[in-house]
Structure formats: structure tokens, C-alpha cells
């Protein structure tokens, strides 16, 4: 069934549209004609029309000069059509509106604006949860009660990110993620999605965690060392931490390893005020350098960053190169991406929107690279080099990574989920050094001297 709704027409325009429709509805009989008086009169100050389609339906909605929809208070009825008649009638009205001088502006679009869609989704917690890999960590009724709070909005985002990425990986691999729910007795829990020994991925993990309780002294010291001034009550610091993290280790050495993590942290101080901040990033660790892949990956991230601030990408790209640096080796872990932490300005809403943009790049920045190299052949020597590079990956994660260190310092943390980032296999060769002029030596040169890719 298709629906057409018209408003914001004066009487002359209404009459014209009636005649226009009548000429296109002769084949529908008197039943359809009896519904022709469907046109409502709206404010003459309306200056624009938004057109959008859902399925085979078509709607015209009026918007005042302030951009507020008047459809809710002005539409009086609708004409229901079916099949080609609806399309033909809609085309007739569209043609009329394009030439009508009663409107100063006619804005045409083929879909509901992104902002409207997202608002509708955020209002319907239960509907969004149906698309997740599992029900959220927090009870759905609690999420609904506090759906306007940042804790709820962030949990919904990380659950959505996990589901979108897992489904994209399952499609390319043909395998299925094992969904493993776990609880933390001190408060909270998580959902670990892991796929091992797939056709494409040797080990793929996408983890969501939502934990709360009181910070330990060690965890508090880590934050204080980063410049945080934390004022607890009776030696206690209530906190809530949540995030989505993923590491993908492909079988083929020509498909890079990818990592991303987006998180939110909240601490309640003795006077009841809350400190909050976001962190995260996405980075790529190829075994062999490919300039096209590097450009695609970095450019996708840059476009997401540029929507929010022109300095985000250059600043966070440098931060990423500094952070994912294996100091005892004198080389970066990979070719970087973006990384940021303790981000709490200009305000919570703007930072959340930035994090949301970044989280929604994880599929488009990585999956095209996977598909590109899906059927690349490789040698035993190339596989051995992949194993050596994975050893470096392990070294960084166990020695330097903040997330791993925080997790290990937090009572009740789930070790399996924390160490999910480690590859299924790796290799440590004594005094390994690639021969000069080889592809392996070229890769190592890039890791010792990070480059600008976009």
C-alpha cells in the first residue's frame, strides 16, 4: 500500500492537484474518487517542502521557515493508492509542485534526513536491541528509563557497533561468531563475540563491556598519572566504564590486522559531581605495505574527523603514531590511524557525536581492504613474516596498552576478554632481521619512520 500526503497548498493549488489526480485515477473507479477530498490547508507562510519515500510510499511534508514540521498538526487525511497508480499520481503531483509559484523553495530528497532517522532509533530502545548480537549488558527496562543519559546512549552505540562489524565479518568469512555473555560480580559485565579458525580470519574478536563499581588504588593512580584530579569519598571512587573493542587477525598475510576501540568513562566525586571523558581510535597493522590500502584507510578516518574539526585527524593521527609505538623495538605497531583519550571538550554532546562518527567508519575503512586481498596467494616465507609481526603485536599489547593494563588492574575483570586481542599464533625468532631490499625490509622502514598517507 502506498500513501501520499499533501499539505501547504492554497485553494487554487488544491483544485489544480484534484484535477491532476483525477486524470490519473480514472482506472481506479468511484471508490478511489470518493477519497479525493484529502487535501488540507496549511499555513501560507510555508516556504519549503520535503519529499521522502519509504518503500513504495511517497509523502510531501511542509516545513515552516523555522524548519519545524507542520505535518503532525496540518495533515487531515490521505489518499491510499496501490501499484503503478500511486507512482503515476505521485509523479503528477511532483510535476505540479515543481512549477507552482506558491512556494519559494522546493527541497527534494530521496530519504528521511539522517538526523530524523537517528532520533527515531534512539527513541525506540527495544527496536534497536533486536539487531544486536545479544541483549545489552544493562537491562532493557533500565536503558529505556534513562534513555536520555549518556551512559545509555553510549551503551547502545557500542552494541550497535559490535553487531554491524560482526555481521560484516561473518558475511565475508562465511563463519559464525560465538556470542559469550559474562558477568562481573563487582558490577556489570560484557558480551564477547569471537570467531576462530574461519576461512578468512584466524581469530576475530569484538568485545563489549559495561562495568561499574569503585576504582582500585592502582587504577586511580593510572588516571592521576594522566593529569586527572580525582576526589573520592571515604577513599572510594564510584566509576562506570564501557566500550567496544576489536582485533581481527586474518589468515592471509596480505590482509592487514585491524584494531579499534571506543569507550566512555564516568567517575562520581565526593560532592556528587561527575567527571567524564571519551577515548578510542582505529588503527591498521599490515604485514606488507600497500599504499592504496593505507590511503583508503586513513582517508576514511579523515573524512569522519573533518566533519567535526579540521585538526582532529592531523592531531589524532600523530597521537596514534606516538601511542602505538614499541619503544624497546624502536618501531610502531603498524601504520596507525587515529587515537585519542581523555576527550571531554567542547561539550559532551559534541564529543559523543564525534565518537559516533568514528565508530561508524570501522566497516567502510576495513572491509574493502579485506575483499580486495581475499584471494591473494602467499608463500611460506610471507606467512613466517606475518608470524614475526604478530609477535611484535603481542609485545605492545602486554607491555604498553592502557586498556590491557587497566583491565588487569580491575578486580573481577574477565581475562579471556582482555586477552582477546592476542593472535591465535605468533612467532619470535632470535635476532630476526629482513634482508635489505626485500618487501619485509620496506615494511620495517615504514614502521621505524611513520608516514603521512593522506
UniProtKB/TrEMBL annotation:
Protein EC: 1.3.3.3
Pfam family, one: Coprogen_oxidas
Positions of transmembrane segments: 78-98
A GO CC annotation given for this chain: cytoplasm
GO molecular function terms listed in the Swiss-Prot or TrEMBL record: coproporphyrinogen oxidase activity
Catalysed reaction equations from the record: coproporphyrinogen III + O2 + 2 H(+) = protoporphyrinogen IX + 2 CO2 + 2 H2O
Involved pathway(s): Porphyrin-containing compound metabolism; protoporphyrin-IX biosynthesis; protoporphyrinogen-IX from coproporphyrinogen-III (O2 route): step 1/1
Gene3D superfamilies in the cross-refs: Coproporphyrinogen III oxidase, aerobic
Keywords for this protein: Heme biosynthesis, Membrane, Oxidoreductase, Porphyrin biosynthesis, Transmembrane, Transmembrane helix
Any single biological process term in GO: protoporphyrinogen IX biosynthetic process
Keyword S-adenosyl-L-methionine: no
InterPro entries assigned to the protein according to its UniProt record, in alphabetical order: Coprogen_oxidase_aer, Coprogen_oxidase_aer_sf, Coprogen_oxidase_CS
Known partners and oligomeric status: Homodimer.
Record-linked NCBIfam families: PRK05330.1
Family: Belongs to the aerobic coproporphyrinogen-III oxidase family.
Protein name: Oxygen-dependent coproporphyrinogen-III oxidase, mitochondrial
Naturally occurring in which organism (per UniProt): Channa argus
Taxonomic lineage from the root: Eukaryota, Metazoa, Chordata, Craniata, Vertebrata
Amino acid at each position: 500500500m502506498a500513501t501520499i500526503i499533501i499539505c501547504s497548498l492554497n485553494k487554487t493549488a488544491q483544485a489544480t492537484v484534484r484535477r491532476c489526480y483525477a486524470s490519473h485515477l480514472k482506472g481506479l473507479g468511484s471508490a478511489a474518487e470518493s477519497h479525493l477530498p484529502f487535501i488540507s490547508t496549511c499555513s501560507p507562510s510555508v516556504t519549503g517542502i520535503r519529499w521522502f519515500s519509504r518503500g513504495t510510499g511517497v509523502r510531501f511534508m511542509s516545513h515552516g521557515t523555522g524548519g519545524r514540521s507542520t505535518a503532525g498538526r496540518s495533515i487531515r487525511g490521505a489518499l491510499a493508492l496501490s501499484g503503478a497508480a500511486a507512482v503515476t499520481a505521485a509523479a503528477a503531483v511532483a510535476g505540479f509542485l515543481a512549477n507552482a509559484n506558491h512556494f519559494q523553495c522546493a527541497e527534494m530528497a530521496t530519504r528521511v534526513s539522517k538526523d530524523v532517522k537517528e532520533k527515531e532509533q534512539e527513541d525506540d530502545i527495544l527496536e534497536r536491541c533486536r539487531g544486536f548480537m545479544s541483549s545489552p549488558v544493562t537491562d532493557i527496562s533500565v536503558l529505556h528509563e534513562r534513555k536520555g543519559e549518556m551512559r545509555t546512549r553510549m551503551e547502545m552505540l557500542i552494541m550497535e557497533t559490535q553487531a554491524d562489524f560482526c555481521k560484516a565479518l561473518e558475511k565475508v568469512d562465511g563463519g559464525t561468531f560465538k556470542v559469550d555473555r559474562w558477568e562481573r560480580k563487582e558490577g556489570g559485565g560484557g558480551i564477547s563475540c569471537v570467531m576462530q579458525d574461519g576461512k578468512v580470519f584466524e581469530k576475530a574478536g569484538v568485545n563489549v563491556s559495561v562495568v561499574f563499581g569503585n576504582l582500585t588504588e592502582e587504577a586511580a593512580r593510572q588516571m592521576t598519572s594522566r593529569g586527572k584530579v580525582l576526589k573520592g569519598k571515604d577513599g572510594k571512587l564510584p566509576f562506570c566504564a564501557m566500550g567496544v573493542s576489536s582485533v581481527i587477525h586474518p589468515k592471509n598475510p596480505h590482509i592487514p590486522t585491524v584494531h579499534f576501540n571506543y569507550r566512555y568513562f564516568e567517575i562520581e566525586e565526593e560532592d556528587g559531581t561527575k567527571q567524564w571523558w571519551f577515548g578510542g581510535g582505529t588503527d591498521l597493522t599490515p604485514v606488507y605495505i600497500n599504499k592504496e590500502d593505507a590511503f583508503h584507510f586513513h582517508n576514511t578516518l579523515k573524512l569522519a574527523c573533518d566533519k567535526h574539526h579540521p585538526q582532529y585527524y592531523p592531531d589524532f593521527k600523530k597521537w596514534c603514531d606516538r601511542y602505538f609505538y614499541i619503544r624497546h623495538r624502536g618501531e610502531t605497531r603498524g601504520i596507525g590511524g587515529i587515537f585519542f583519550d581523555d576527550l571531554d571538550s567542547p561539550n559532551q554532546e559534541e564529543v559523543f557525536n564525534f565518537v559516533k562518527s568514528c565508530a561508524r567508519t570501522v566497516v567502510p575503512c576495513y572491509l574493502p581492504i579485506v575483499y580486495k586481498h581475499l584471494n591473494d596467494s602467499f608463500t611460506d616465507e610471507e606467512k613466517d613474516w606475518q608470524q614475526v609481526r604478530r609477535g611484535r603485536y603481542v609485545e605492545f599489547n602486554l607491555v604498553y596498552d592502557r586498556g590491557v593494563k587497566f583491565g588487569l588492574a580491575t578486580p573481577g575483570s574477565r581475562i579471556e576478554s582482555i586477552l582477546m586481542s592476542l593472535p591465535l599464533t605468533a612467532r619470535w625468532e632470535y635476532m630476526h632481521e629482513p634482508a635489505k631490499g626485500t618487501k619485509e625490509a620496506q615494511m620495517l622502514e615504514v614502521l621505524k619512520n611513520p608516514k603521512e598517507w593522506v
